Amino acid sequence: MSSDLVSQADIDEVSxxxxxxxxxxxxxAARCVCGRPLVVKTKPRLANGTPFPTLYYLTxxxxxAAVSTLEAT
Length: 73
Fold this sequence. Notes:
Elements: H1 8-18, E1 25-31, E2 37-42, E3 56-58, H2 61-72
Antiparallel strand pairs: 1-2, 2-3
């Protein structure tokens, strides 16, 4: 996965995808063909000190749904 810089537009898009404010994003690890964030790289601990065990986090709703379906089968 190739990381790139995170813009405010990226943070806004990830927040929209998640339905909540995005937190502690280090990089956009992957983008969809339209350029929107698909996977984010997060800090191992959130700003408040809470451990966040997922380094790479799938955020795009359609991709998340597809992976959930695969995991359920």
